[in-house]
Amino acid sequence: MALTTLDAKTALVVIDLQQGIVAMPTVHPAADVIRRAAALADAFRRHALPVVLVNVAGGAPGRAEQARPTGNFPPGFADLVPQLKQEASDHLVTKRTWGAFTNTDLEAYLREQGVTQIVLAGVSTSIGVESTARFAHELGLNIAFAVDAMTDLHLDAHTNSLTRIFPRLGETGTTQEVLDVLERTRA
């Protein structure tokens, strides 16, 4: 379903736009994703809506067939990209799992703020963004996906999330569509 509206109390949640991750090869230019996410953050701040910036500082333990990092990441890896212009009013969530809710204060923060909907952006579409969306959906939050403000390391995974998973969890739209609805619902 295309983006129809944004709730009165909607938060922007930006996943893993940090130095170590945006340096990896992504299917869409990281600079474009960062620019669009920064535009969303600016607009949400201008409307006094919550902005949540999420970074990942380590990996969860456990066996997996595919090699993946666990433990702590190298210094600087988790530093948010400066283009997001992090402000004191932004809520920072540092995670050690794919999704932003597990073992963090994100759920409590959103409830405290009275948030009923989140707009998601970031990297990686099929990992951090999708995991966060699935948990948010289970919590009963409305979800909007800024689909051009996210990317992945793998095109097939990105496409699967956008075409098969996200429409089942919420509404999708471009950054400009999110900005247009934001302006229309706040006028």
UniProtKB/TrEMBL annotation:
Q: Which InterPro entries match?
A: Isochorismatase-like_dom, Isochorismatase-like_hydrls, Isochorismatase-like_sf
| Signal peptide start-end | none
Q: Which SUPFAM superfamilies match?
A: Isochorismatase-like hydrolases
Say yes or no: keyword Hydrolase present: yes
TM region positions: none
Q: Write out the entry's keywords from A to Z.
A: Hydrolase
The Isochorismatase-like domain extends over 10-177
Coiled-coil residue spans: none
Family annotation (Pfam families): Isochorismatase
Entry protein name: Isochorismatase family protein
Q: Which organism is it from?
A: Paraburkholderia phenoliruptrix
